[in-house]
Design a protein that fits this description.
alpha/beta; 4-stranded antiparallel β-sheet; 7 helices
Length: 245
């Protein structure tokens, strides 16, 4: 994301994580539990939680006995995640498009539903390169993404959500290459509503196959929902990919 891009402004805003954790937080923890049961990582495995937000998934993974490192591009999120002051998980302010530790982790996750917002394919490839490079040979990478073909068939709609005293109006749309969102936030702490306009690339299974292959990673499994049901091009809402280095 560019330094002052709308996507970066949204994902570094405290209102972004507030919405995420209060609408999908429980679901995310349940999904992580199922994923770990399926993958059976070695005890005390080194795990990278990319785009970790304020550490919800990182803390859950640590509680399951793994050594977890969370990275996020939001200083606010990292400050909040680090408040507990524990050694596990540990958190770093980092843009995943830039190099990070090499050949270190046994498992890397991107589960926070915020991949796909970069302006160019090159930036998406850079993020994939960082994650692939961070893994040891034989390491696994799991990414959760909306199923583009399923989403394309859904009519544009407006969502209204309230988290505490904060109100969110989310208008959804799409064009030929991107899913579009306009998020309007109203809160007593704001003099006027905040408006964020986001564009998310319509990435398909083929796109991910190409990006991962370019980084010498091979797809092992593809699932279509958080219960790890079979992927179906038009009938399942998610594209959950497990790839191996």
């Amino acid at each position: 994301m560019e330094t002052n891009s709308p996507s970066r402004e949204w994902f570094t805003s405290p209102f972004s994580y507030k919405l995420y954790v209060n609408t999908t937080g429980n679901q995310a923890e349940i999904f992580v539990n199922q994923l770990i049961q399926y993958l059976h990582p070695v005890a005390a495995s080194l795990v990278l939680d990319s785009a970790c937000g304020q550490g919800l998934i990182s803390r859950r993974l640590a509680s399951l006995g793994f050594q977890v490192t969370g990275v996020d591009l939001s200083a606010f999120n990292i400050d909040q995640a680090s408040e507990a002051g524990t050694d596990n998980p540990e958190f770093y302010l980092h843009d995943i498009r830039l190099p990070f530790w090499g050949n270190y982790f046994q498992l890397a996750l991107n589960l926070s539903d915020n991949f796909g917002y970069y302006r160019t394919r090159r930036e998406h490839d850079s993020a994939m390169r960082t994650i692939a490079s961070s893994l040891r040979p034989g390491g696994l990478f799991v990414i959760d993404y909306p199923n583009t073909h399923y989403m394309e068939s859904k009519p544009a709609e407006q969502e209204l959500k309230q988290v505490g005293v904060t109100h969110y109006r989310i208008q959804n749309g799409q064009n030929s290459t991107h899913f579009l969102q306009t998020i309007t936030v109203t809160d007593p702490s704001l003099k006027e509503p905040l408006v964020f306009s986001l564009q998310r690339a319509k990435l398909s299974l083929g796109d991910f196959t190409d990006m991962l292959s370019f980084q010498k990673m091979q797809i092992q499994e593809v699932f279509g929902d958080y219960n790890l049901g079979d992927y179906n091009l038009h009938e399942m809402p998610r594209l959950i990919i497990i790839a191996k280095k």
